[in-house]
Write a structure and sequence with these properties.
Its EC number is 1.-.-.-, 1.6.99.-. The protein is an alpha/beta fold. The chain is about 30% helix and about 10% strand. It is globular and about 55 Å long.
Length: about 260
């Protein structure tokens, strides 16, 4: 497989940096080709500006329309087009980052904002005229794994942990970005104790990462419900016979108990 590994941490000696290097080595040992976008090393600019879309000075910025026009014309900045080409080449995508304030670092969010433009990652119609999203799109057929590290213990991110369940914290990224754009999304890998990791912790985390990467092409994904199945009505609301009496994020994952109610 061709794998794109996007990593967002300013310190290469951090647990994130160490595991990114080990993960790349593990994939290459398995015979995969790995391309790395190290956003801090690249000095990636996360700020979307008018310059991305080549607007006239007196022209109002409409992000979706402006990005679509620049994408169709092939005039997006070269660094954006380069990242889009990496995504096209990849069979699998790994996003690795520390969980800062329960979300991605700004540099990674800005990578998504600038790269996942209309015409490329959203606002795309299929031959049948339907919008390609939630299980269909530019990432269709590609597998995606989120690897994130935290300072707190695993239990705090469990079904009843004070920080919230990891799958729900990462839902906007895994469901609202990756699955929206068509990717087959694997359960995330959460690495705890990043601020105080010892050599023993590194070895343990490295083994867990290697195990997950060994199944990158075969592990069962999160069973998110596709938009173009029969699970949603014309208003994009889950049909009442599915997950009856329940609400919240977990109902958009088929045949799984509500993680908030799990013991």
């Amino acid at each position: 497989m061709d794998v794109l590994w996007v990593v967002a941490h300013p310190e290469p000696r951090s647990l994130t940096g160490v595991l990114a290097a080990e993960g790349r080595a593990a994939l290459e040992e398995q015979g995969h080709r790995v391309e790395v976008s190290d956003l801090y090393a690249m000095r990636w600019d996360p700020v979307l500006t008018r310059a991305d879309y080549g607007l006239d000075p007196d022209e109002r910025l409409f992000v979706s329309a402006g990005s679509r026009r620049a994408y169709d014309a092939g005039t997006l900045p070269p660094e954006i087009r380069a990242e889009q080409e990496k995504l096209r080449r990849a069979d699998a995508l790994v996003l690795q980052f520390p969980l800062w304030w329960f979300g991605m670092p700004a540099i990674l969010k800005g990578w998504v904002d600038r790269v996942f433009v209309e015409g490329f990652a959203y606002g795309v119609r299929g031959a049948d005229g339907r919008t390609r999203r939630y299980g269909d799109g530019v990432l269709a057929g590609k597998r995606a794994l989120v690897v994130t590290s935290t300072g707190g213990p695993d239990s705090a991110f469990g079904p009843r942990g004070i920080n919230g369940h990891a799958e729900e914290l990462l839902f906007p990224l895994m469901h609202g970005t990756l699955f929206y754009a068509g990717a087959t999304v694997l359960p995330p890998l959460l690495v705890s104790g990043a601020d105080r990791f010892t050599e023993e912790d590194r070895v343990r985390a490295g083994a867990a990462l290697r195990a997950r990467l060994a199944g990158l092409g075969t592990d069962a994904p999160l069973p998110f419900r596709p938009q173009h199945g029969d699970d949603y009505d014309d208003r994009l609301v889950l049909r009442p016979h599915l997950a009856p009496g329940r609400a919240g994020l977990s109902v958009h994952t088929a045949d799984r108990p509500d993680v908030r109610a799990a013991g």
